[in-house]
Fold these 4 entries.
Entry 1:
Amino acid sequence: MKNIFKQAFHSPRFVIGFSIFACILLTMLIYPLLMPGNPLEMIGLGTFFRPGTYVSVYDALDADSRTIKLSDADDNRLAKAMSDADRISMMEWLAVAGVPAEDIDLRDTHGLISLWKKYYDPSVRPEGMTKAKRNYYERLNNRLVAVTRADTITMLSPDAETGEMEERGRVAKTDYVNVSDVTNVRRLPLGTDNFGRDMLKELVSACGTSLFIGLVAGGIATFIGLLLGLLAGYIGGLLDDFIMFFTNIFTVIPSFVILILISFSIDQSQRGALTTAVVIGLTSWVWTTRSVRAQVLSLRNRDHVNLSKLSGHSLSRIVLTDILPYIASYVVMAFILQISSGILAEAQLSLLGLGPKTTTTPTLGLMMNWAMLYSAHINGAWWAYYPVILTIALITFSLNLMNTGLDQVFNPQLRS
Amino acid sequence: MHEGSNRPTDNRPTENCPTEKRVCLSGTGVTKVFGAGSRKTVAVDHVDFSFNEGEMISIVGESGSGKTTLVKMLLGLTSVTDGDLYFMGKKRDIRTRRRKKAYWKGIQAIFQDPFSAYNIFKKIDSVLLDCVHMRGGRHLPHEEKIRMISEACGFVNLKYEELTNKYPFELSGGQMQRLMIARIFLLRPKILLADEPTSMIDACSRATILDMLMKLRAEEGMTIVFITHDLGLAYYVSDRLMIMEKGVIVEQGAADEVILNPQHPYTKQLLSDVPKLTEPW
Amino acid sequence: MGKTLLEVKGLTTKYITRFHENVYAVDNVSFAVEEGKSLGIAGESGCGKSTLALSLMGYYFPPLHYMSGDILIDGRNISGMAPDDVRLHILGAEIAYIPQAAMNALNPTQKIIRFIEDVILAHDPKMGKKDIYDLARKRFEILNLPADVLQKHAVELSGGMKQRTVIAISTILSPKVLIADEPSSALDVSSQRVVIKMLRDLMEMGYIKCMIFITHELPLLYNVTDDIAVMYAGQFVEKGTAKEMVFDPLHPYSKGLMESIIVPESGTRDIKLSAIPGTPPNLKNPPSGCRFAERCRYVTPMCAASSVRFLDVAGERNYRCILPEEKLREVYGRA
């Protein structure tokens, strides 16, 4: 056994798969220690905050400000204030005003602004331009003027007793605060989801739940498959016919359909992660049964089994010592695959809204489901689903890698 | 099971050869059919035979002759479709596990491929210990068990000290097959069915295996049924030959008679197809 | 004396194992086969006889590697040729090889005639299908194979028939040398006889000019080949005519092998079979002196120390032992 472990770590595939899986597992264990708290806490009021560092504006005002003069600060502000669409509209105005097209450079923010200041006149009413469009130009102009004006912003706060506005301070364009001086800063590396929950925290927690579901589902499927396969293969006869009849029925009906029906028949409030895992496990033992049975069938006529019989060993002892060790490697590999397909099945179910109930724990499938329900893909909120997809892919990829790596170890024909 | 306290060696016959020829295993109309309906195959077709105590009988046949199926039936590893088997004068009854176990104390086998006959996950010691236990030696002190195993290894010219704690795959094919014989030595069955015991072994170690089988018969008075496809080998080792073709025993008789004066066309054909040294082929 | 068709001089090939160890499975083997003659190679499993068969083709693929020596076919050295040249011009046309499991090499989805077309077109792309069919049919008829086999699939044929078909396909280009590695070991004796008869026919009709026949079954070898060489631990230990080798072996190992022969003939029951104790040496690390010394019944103190050359006795007879011929006969108690 020790030897097999050693050999497994000589297989590059197994090592790669194992390292990916170990990284995921370690993250799952360590991250909650570093960032404690409920992963389902809704911290953001609003949907899909972009990934990044969030700084409290209130605290920033109180932080010590320093004056830094940067020559391109104004240009940056302007560039930020003008979207690509704004620039194209500006070009249209300038064209109407008679500026030759070759003089306009959309990328040159500075040049565009100076042309704009020179030619824009709110009183001019170009032919065929709607009122709405003219209003838009006015708003754009006001915004640009606001950005480029040179004055400071004065902060006022109402007096608690009189209600009179008092000046609290002034913020100049050249005032800067150090982020580390700001009291409240929240990093959201993956932004927030539609409910305003920290995506990364949620993802780590979902990863754990999904792995748990995979493990339980895989365990149940492998156990049932192994048991039925051993019984059908070794004892044979009528029992074999019965088990195979049963198995064939399950093979013919797509297990996913059964899975959907069972999940649907259980009320959502009753569906926890464990229930889902058990349901997945109960519907995915078919292939394990078939292949275990096939292997046992060829093993039971081997001479070492005959010898064991001739030595007077009992049926259970023969199964445990002469059959099971020979198929153990296969069962381990099937178990690994079952884990990964369990995780995938959960994701599929949850995406259809038939996964575990949504209020207690996140799962990878549920996160996909939420992202889809709140149209994350239309809103451009890639952070709400890409990391989830990547995680599912990484987990199943690493498990499959380990599986093929073990195959190389257990199957000498593939070693060469 | 009080005989366990006795040393199995006490059951040895005192004489090297049995004085009278008693039938120890016989069968009438033994048949094995696989499948049913249009896919029916008759592997063994109404075979009659009887093996005497202390005899060395060879069953010779080509592949597909049903000789291995016959062995499996005799061992009780496959069910008999039709016909009766008699063991030590009584009709064989192996319907329960206890009776089967008792039957297997009297009849044992050596298989063709030593490499597949061992459980590769078990150490060699456990195979031999099982035999001591089967002979009722479960409650013997450990030293006594080891002594018995060492004696058995000595019988096949192996040293127990060199084998203990080893796995089967650490041995050569010849050594594994000798260990199989050591197992038989420990069990001392009435009848030994040897299914092609030398076909996977190099010619130059074949003689060792054959010698040991001969020794088992001479010293233990064992009845040995030798199954082979090799007429030369069968002729060399056995007193009596049975030639099987397509599930039927076509000819049987004393070895010299069958080989030197064959009657059945199939036997003649088989003999003429074997390459020889003195006659042109 | 016919002309020498196949000549092997000091051929050495090795396997490189997974753990990068060198195993010299064929170690400095030399021999020659004349036109119309056949040489049998006998030995225990693992002695290197099958590796020799592979090495003789001049086509090496990992883990087998060529080390040194020459293989001359009709005077043409093929050992130094590029693998692709060997495959195109030597295999099939000059040398044909039939392994033990050759009958399993037939793709079950194709008709037999397709394999023959493949073989012929690879060497003569211009030949028409009709001509190929006529050639194949004629050859099959001469070899007593029913011509309708050509239109059948491999699964429709019995084991013996498949093996004969493969032999017919491999020799369709009339190669000079046929290497048969245990061609009949997987078959029943009756099929074996037909296969052997076919090999003999091929030789007699001149479709093959000489044959190397490898088997562990000595009575078979005695009946098939003119000469027999006994191989042990990657080397030839003795070579002579079949009769000499079976009835008057000189090397202690050949003697042991010959004493293990059992045939169903009168008198054989009274012979005492002998066994050679021990196991062959590990070829990763062969002993420096005589490789058989460890198992030899007639070992002398010099054996393990001195390396032994492959001695010529007379004519075609060679053996590898430090004891002279007379001395060996004396210890064996032969006149």
Note: Residues 1-19 of chain B have pLDDT under 50 and may be disordered.
Entry 2:
Amino acid sequence: MNPVNYLYLAALLFTIGASGVLIRRNAIVVFMCIELMLNACNLSLVAFSRMHGNLDGQIIAFFTMVVAAAEVVVGLAIIVSLFRSRHSASVDDASLMKL
Amino acid sequence: MSTTAVHSLWITAAQPLDKIQAPHIEYAQLAPMIIVFGAAILGVLVEVLVPRRSRHHTQMFLAVVALTAAFAAVLGLAAGGYGTTRAGIAAMGAIAVDGPALFLQGTILLAALVSVFTFAERRLDPSADGRRVDSFAAQAASVPGSDSEKAAVKAGFTTTEVFPLALFAVAGMLVFPAANDLLTLFIALEVFSLPLYLLCALARRKRLMSQEAAVKYFLLGAFSSAFFLFGIALVYGYAGSVAYARIADVVDGTVQTIDPALAATMGNDALLLIGGAMLLMGLLFKVGAVPFHMWTPDVYQGAPTPVTGFMAAATKVAAFGALLRLLYVVLPGLSWDWRPVMWAIAIVTMLGGAIVAITQTDIKRLLAYSSIAHAGFILAGVIAATPEGISSVLFYLLAYSFVTIGAFAVVTLVRDAGGEATHLSKWAGLGRRSPLVAAVFAVFLLAFAGIPLTSGFSGKFAVFRAAAEGGAGTLVVIGVISSAIAAFFYIRVIVLMFFSEPRPEGPTVAVPSPLTMTTIAVGVAVTLVLGVAPQYFLDLAGQASVFVR
């Protein structure tokens, strides 16, 4: 199968993730959409790696997974602490500093 | 590439190799980064092994020693000629050791050193249950206002983890402007961003605001780094490599061997243009340039003030270093495409930051918008695309980081019952009540405004001259206009401090320990020295302005 098709899929997933970040209001869902974007990046990296016949893209995909895991650790800690003090994970409710 | 060729790649990878070449790592040239990473890991161990009552001093000692040692290593490398004649690529092509990298690493380390002093300050907050406390939460996991928080305060807990977190962030920032391939760049970005997200959430007072700032910074930061990563994927797809030199060759069309796959992707300019734009987007987010600046005021206001100072100074230095290297080393062949875009961004950043700052009523938000305007001024130097452009940006970053850290350190001193009194109305008449603090803050504001005899003037002059010589005259005119707009609100704060009556229930100025005093004194000293006698440092930045390829 032509690897370019995987690039289209990656672009589609990335767009779904990006629109999710902009549309959804729950911090956890927003965060999941960001993870979807990172996975779309991984898919395109691996597809490009296949097209070019070198392994750089696959190595980067491994690094991205580790970074995504570290981001989950930090992100969930911050979101959970916000949820515990406000009893809401909505990104619209967090507006103490709105001008 | 054919299926059989790829298949043979897997087979080769799966077969046992007789001899794996060990990578050659130049440890001496990587010493600054290794020292700071090592100290950060030691700091995590200190949290485990050292009893709670002596952790604060141990952590602070470790952080100060590590940053000083790393700075000494940077000086040693610079003295050994690694910034000029012996500049080169280290760590199998991952890290560049050259003039701009060493200059920016030195700036980041000095800025981090004086920031760590403000992190360690324990005389400003009134003591809780007879113990001196710093500006960080007793226990970050406890819910604000809950019994568990009260118990943590009563037990005298402090979040000493801020020191290793800051060291991890500094280590990432050291790698960021020196990264010589896109993978290292991305990892460095995450290594310095993740600790900063956490540091933002750790304020002792106004914890809801602090947590809100952290969530906003985290979600937007992760969003922008996803764009950044997709940009990396597209540029990798275009060039078939993530090494800067290789990408630059492919962009220029001077690459030696072209296989069919590369020939196919090289023909597709959309990959390069969209990928390059996404890379720029990620870096401009960290810089705080205008279409991507929305996080800046909220995060600067909500984060603990020592963290804000550190973040405002060091992040900007690191991000501009990476931006310079990306534009000057990787994408010079594309400068006809990126220059108009950067022009537009510089103009809206300068004007937007300056105009919106006028309406601000909170001193931390005011400084946040001022930092956005300053990002615009620095972008004017980036656009010059000449060696003078590089050296002027390096000098501006050095000058700006100390003014910023000093100004935020002064903000920590002005307090009332609720913690720091950041509303501007409370600063009225501060000059009558404590002339010294108000005078010091006035020096920083004049430097922000770019008044002669302060570092702000030398920096702005260097940047605008480089931009004008680089053919960006219009940009300089707009820059001067927005400097004038910006000067209006800096002067307004000075007038407010010195020429209005103090309020009866106004804030008090806390007497800090020698730590914060050192930070402010260093800030004032650097501001005046770089303003009165900038030539030596301009020459230094000039010598350091050649990127290695």
Note: Strands of chain B lie at 88-90, 95-97, 414-416, 419-420, 508-509.
Entry 3:
Amino acid sequence: MTNVNNKRPNLAVEIAGIKLKNPVMPASGTFGYGEEYAPFLDLNSLGAIVTKGLSLNPKAGNPTPRIAETTSGMLNAIGLQNVGIDAFVQSKVPYYRGITTPIIANFFGNTLEEYGEVARKLNDVPEVTAVELNISCPNVKQGGIVFGTEAAAASQVVSLVRKALNKPLIVKLTPNVTDITVIARAAEEAGADAISCINTITGMAIDIRTRQPKIANRTGGLSGPAIRPVAVRMTHQVVQAVKIPVIGIGGIMCAEDALEFLIAGATAVQVGTANFIDPAAMMAVIDGLERFLIEEGLDDIRQVIGSLQV
Amino acid sequence: MKNYSTTILANHEISPGYFRMKLLAPGIKAQSQPGQFIMIRPQTGLPTMLRRPFGILRCGFLPAECDGLPEREYLEILYKVVGKGTTFLSELHAGDRAEVLGPLGRGFDLGAIGTEKILVGGGIGLVPLYLLAETLIERGGKVRVLIGGRTRDDILCVTEFERLGVETYVSTDDGSLGEAGFVTNVLKRKLDKYPQAEVFACGPMPMLAAVAHICSVDHVPLQVSLEAHMACGVGACLGCVVKGVGHSDSNPRYLCTCKAGPVFSAGELDWGRMESQSESCTKGCA
């Protein structure tokens, strides 16, 4: 494994002012709070750690069954179960003091006020480098319309959080929309520093013997390799539509999958379902990216980003 | 716990629909406690993607080879074919490769030394009780194993348990082997006779709920091993949760089967809600 210069290629990238040693991080909800995976990989070798989604109050989550495997993917309706922001700060954050990798706190709300309040609380947590805003939630005060499916609602929540927050703001988009570029632009104009896309695609699976949905919530979010071509397409569209950096997400299982997103123009990627299948999956992705650069005779991952030939 | 690729040594159908798989598993004996589980997936040609959780049936050392190779450690799982994942697993052969993650979760607390121990296994739920019985016997003390199943085909490994020196009692719902009726009837009789016993149970949820009811009426300590659909096995996906005692919508107390369990003290769980939960498959779901 030597290239001509006998120098290791550069994998470092920068997103919203955060320096990442490589472009690989877990997708929220697939990596716990990070600590759960410490026995299987070196957390300090990741580009960043993205936490499980946090809310103002603890959230119970949905009844079981909550997950079902489908062809090349899985459906989940966990229901955003989490300990709540205060318990996170008290019991999870201290662990991050021993970690050099940037911590990105993912959070969500069901009202504008909740979003604002969580953002303000995160301002006071120095261990959290940046936040990722999940706008795939229904606004309970607005008839349950999902913030991220309507440009005006997306714009409202992003600009509210932008004003409340003094850290870099990444906005995570839902793919369950007619035109994702409209929402991406709304988020950018409202002050997002970066976009991550995509969240899971709403799906459903039925047990033909019992005639019941396979998960208790009836519908759930589809993830895994089944959604990757959709995610690559949407990443490509969003990259064209905005000037801020994009983080590509959707069914990445290996370095080759990650490279599709990077070539499409994503500055970084998130690995989700693959963490469940192999807890060391991200290490293989990082190693594979380096190997790819060496094979291609490149010395910097940034030569790959956005290198799509059309 | 470890994450490794390994070789399948054997994979045979031991009763209609039940398979027993042996895999190389370096270091397993020292690392695992009775009641823990592994997550496993075949390495190649996958029609399914996620690993599946299986209780560890046995572990030990293969005899040293005459060519001077060192003793090699193995583990065995026993699983019922219930869906795509287990169907595919059942089609693997000796020499095929598999990826193993484990041992995972919290195993059985062995309880007080010298007291009567009653182990209750329903169908494939017998699996995690073997290592437990072996360990309890090594510590000394009386161990009785009550084995229940729908039919004689669902009664597994009786001779193997007997070889450990435990007393076994078999019951089937249809009376095709042993006593006719539920294993819980046998349990009631044994508890009448041995009221100081500690009980350990694994099996389908309705059986566990019935065992929990009996033990709570008799004030007998009970540990149960649960199973659940899970994606990760390490407490991240939150797919495998069960309701803990005191759970309510305003004060959620969800426990991860993979991490807080799979073995729980009966008092940790909300049994009122447990009975309404679906009758899950057994260790070896989907």
Note: Residues 188 and 230 of chain A are 22 Å apart (CA to CA).
Entry 4:
Amino acid sequence: MRRIGLALIFLLGVTFPAAAKDTLVIGISQFPRNFNPNIESMLAKSYVLAMARRQLTVYDADWKLVCLLCTVLPSYENGRAVNELTADGKPGIAVTYTIHPDAVWGDGVPITTKDVQFTVEAGQNRKSGFGNSELYKRITKVEAKDDKTFTLHVNKRTCDYAGIADLGLLPAHIERPNFADPAEYRHRSAYETDTTNPGLWYGPYRVSKVVAGSYIALEQNPKWWGKKPAFKRIIVKAIENTAALTANLLSGDIDYIAGELGLTVDQALAFQKRHGDTFDFTYKPGLIYEHIDLNLDNPVFADVRVRRALLHAMDRDAINQQLFQGHQPVAHGQTNPLDEVYEPEISKYAYDPKRAKELLAAAGWSQMRKGVRHNAKGERLQLELMTTAGNKSRELIQQVLQSQLRQVGVDLRIRNEPARVFFGDTVSYRKFRDMAMFAWISAPRNIPRTTLHSDQIPSADNGWSGQNYTGFKNPEIDTVIEDMETVCGEKENLALWSRLQRIYSEALPVLPLYFRANAYIVPKWLKGIVPTGHQFSSALWIENWHAEQ
Amino acid sequence: MFPYIAGRLFESIIVLLVLSFAVYGLIGLMPGDPIDLMIQGDPKLTPADAKRLKALHGLDQPILDRYLAWLGNAMQGDFGYSRNHSKPAIDVIAGGIGNTVLLLGISLILSLAIAVPVGVYAALRPYSKTDYIVNLACFAGISMPPFWLALLLIILFAVVLKWLPAGGMETVGDGSFLDRLHHLVLPVITLTIASVGDFTRFIRASMLQTLRYDFIRTARAKGLSMTRVVTGHALRNALLPLVTIVGLSFGRLFSGALITETMFAWHGMGKMIYDAILGNDYNLALIGLLFATGLTLIGNFLADAGYVWLDPRVSLAGREQQQ
């Protein structure tokens, strides 16, 4: 018995040294499914790879397109963007990039145009399993000027020609043999079979160990050509349960919870109440647009006055203040005010229950029976609001909206489904009867073709493709979207953005709620993290992170 | 004995076949396939991309065709690739089995090591203060949700006392035997507390009943000491029903392991199967569930064998004849 006791004391009493400051342990709530940059897009993967790779172009924290791996962005002014005609006489464009002269893979092999050519070849192969292949389909030819400079000939002239973040560069010297059978590439890629091979990585860090489902260790890349990072080692631990994630932070098992993949704002606020003195808290609103899609096939929503009345009846400012302490700004449209194309002079719908009542009455919902509006046919103004079950923030908002809409005579019923069913069936197949609350994630200056163009309405005829789930049809919006892709003069393009936002705010195909914020919980000694608010994570600038005693 | 084992093996294969079809079908009935899930994570994926990827992954085929193709490959030892891990499903499972068996094995042994003596002790003093305290502790353990218990233990031992790690399987850069043992303590305690109550209550009830039998009175009348009566006569009989319960509890322990593994970021099979089902990772979900079923079947077989060992009157051959 005494021996057992001693063993227990030993087991419990032995404490292991806390991570030294040359190691940063980051907690995230998801483990990457794979490591190949082109097979599937996933937030956890993007976050980890941001430390070990550098895309040619990205948007920075000021939401400006910048070069990371290239030396200069192509433009008409610098002669690196040149209009041309495709073989079939359509407007195309040739864009020229130069890879950073010192850029090398982690094994010392220079990054060259051969890697670009191989990546495009793999991306254009239908069997390679690349997720988003749009960019590769548009590239008709890669012309290598020398080892470092190449020109992409693109068969569609669009205004976002300079950004090629989707080109996930692959090391030809390692991956070409694995590509011998393209259909098997996704299984044979060294990113999955030999993840710690230094030659796969070309960022400040390289992946040194992967314990599936548990953690990824990254160590400094001695071949990195940029600013030397401060931490010798980065550990990214995946802890799915957010309560366990915060407990790990408090116990010191992790140093920092990534804002991109950590706690929601309400969870972070609750944590801040108890531990506000120990950590720095940053809430960065971004491009995650929470909104309510309306099923415009429903006759109730055919009258725009009803849509406007609903928005007037929602006190979104109060929701933001009460539930999120003002950290998730109210959205007046789908374009974020931080985006340079944002148009402030659009129709906005402040909380005004009186106006909401007037609009509803004018739309024919004038008879009140037992606190609910009815129309001349005796139909009750009862709407169903659906969202993802288990999402606490959304469920709280539903309850508030139910109460607020009741005050103007709208009977709001709540019906939620697991995310899997909600997105996989209800939303994708436009099965929601009235209203569906969810979020869109986009990039700066992202043209909303998939969500607003009439050719993107999912239906049986088009195999339920497209994301215009509201069924919004507006010929002017269609034209504006098409022009936005090709009219690239800054002034003219901004005018189109402005027009789009004005139409959107007038027509209200969806009810804007707020822009979601990411919550960064940072130890006071950790400096240099700059949240971006878009899909390019703060970890892309990890070489600026450092410990300050 | 051999015909019995062969019969059980045949039964098990049928169960596994039926289950594989049921699981494949059920996952297939879930809304959305892996590519639909991919689209949610990447709004830039075009309908053409989705179509191409569905064809590449064979998701454009009817579910029965896909199942038969899977079965044909599985018969040849090819269980396909895991979508969630981008590795052969069998390799992924192999990585998780050891971790889960370690966790479940230790907690099961610990649970029994606590439950048997405590249950017997309580049964020997029915309705005493000790018995009430044991019952109370058992009900507390049974009623406590494992995730809540896990969180409490993390806060106490990792956050407040800082004696134990809050999660994970090893300290990065260490990974020694002692280090792994250190990381095992909290998950094992959680699983043990979650299961020990049931076992203790069962032992107590079984022992109480056994102590009322005539042969126990006879043994006492012969002048045997209570210790001898309990260890030599009563316990052996009282353990018989427990063997069945332990055999059946394998499956339940897996579900407990899922929560424990999630809370402690322990990379085991429970969590792996759960993620595979949610992520539409057919191959991994199937092989994981089949393995869990196989383990339960083995558990039941061992329970039957345990019966024979504990009670010589029971014969597997006889049971086979009865079938």
Note: Chain A touches chain B through 68 residues (CB under 8 Å).
